[in-house]
Amino acid sequence: MQIEQYKIDEFNQRHAQEHTRRYEFAASSLANVDDVLQRLVDFQIGIPSWALGTGGTRFGRFPGGGEPRSLEEKIEDVGLLHALNQSSGSISLHIPWDIPSDYKAIKALAAQHGLRFDAVNSNTFQDQADQSLSYKFGSMQHVDKAVRRQAVEHNIEVIRHGMELGSDALTVWLSDGSSFPGQLSFRKAFENTLESLQEVYAALPDDWKVFVEYKAFEPNFYSMTVGDWGQSLLLANKLGPKAYTLVDLGHHLPNANIEQIVSLLLMEGKLGGFHFNDSKYGDDDLTTGSIKPYQLFLIFSSLIDGMDARSMDHATSLAWMIDASHNVKDPLEDLLQSVEAIMIAYTQALLVDQQALREAQQENDVARCQEILQEAYRTDVRPVVAEARLRAGAALRPLQLFREVKVRENLVKERGRKTVATGL
Ligand code: LRH
Ligand code: MN
Questions:
Q1: What is the dihedral of CA 120, 59, 81, 315, to 10 degrees?
Q2: Which residues does ligand 1 sit against, CB inside 6 Å?
Q3: Which DSSP symbol is given to 66?
């Protein structure tokens, strides 16, 4: 299903007066509004190909119907999101869930929707039907060299798919680890993983990056071989300049200070990108900004401070991607809300008077530091984010228009109620 531009323009026309009133009020108190608007128009978020259907847990899965049945339909769905907010300009594929049958046709279809291919993801956390050796006891850490070899070859195959599609980065998340004390030699597992990643690194094209994604627990519940930012950074430093860490917000132990981790990884020039989502307990993969919106703002405040300190281009220096799973919400509505939350947090962080904050920090004026941060966080920037969408040709209120044109109902009519998308 596509949403024609005239329907978006008509919708915006109906809401123009209300928007103009709200935007002019918001803009009246912002010194750098034009700079902020341009940064928002340039800021593009990668949509996970594995999160366009209904997710589930081991206890159950409740599909909502109209799910994409192929990579082509997944690209159409991301294209629809991008038409509504002009901030979803890339799709991140997961191999083998989304192996392109015809690279040329898939690239042309993506281009038709204004989409590029973000980082490609390997998968050595499941055994495929045609796989000879099992990853039950890990992949790159495995005690058996043949299993490690199989995992390396899979990652090199994923790079090849990505090169055909114009991607320039590989994300490696390893479910490797142990579930009981004594089960694993932590040192051997790390050394095996490093050796395996070095073979993958050697296969990377010159202009590519590899993102090493860490995770504290699940599916292993005693140790994860790449369990935290320190272990990921150790690997990235040992691998070389094309290797970076990837921060999935849901992959931390409770109360971890993610904004501090981000600040230090940026300082080291080893932060590659993000998997945005939110969580209250574990890797809940909930809508970004739905549980801890203040933390998301603080993360973006750290990001802007760190990126500006290194004169990094906000839109292109890091891989901005969502990684979520939708158990009770419509997948597309959930993704629209995640993109909105990310754009709001980025905008609020752009309003932080970083100079005044540094001065207050220099004076140990703790209360003033909080006032400076919360002045920005408590600013309603939604009209500014909406204005950026308007200027980019998108909808003033993407979710409202999504519902008004009955996207899900039309997708169910087109694809049926029982279709299941590949992915989590
Ligand atoms: C692991 C993870 C990883 C993906 C998977 C779908 O929890 O975050 O990024 O490969 O989810
Ligand atoms: Mn992730």
A1: -50
A2: 50, 121, 173, 213, 215, 248, 275, 283, 323, 424
A3: -
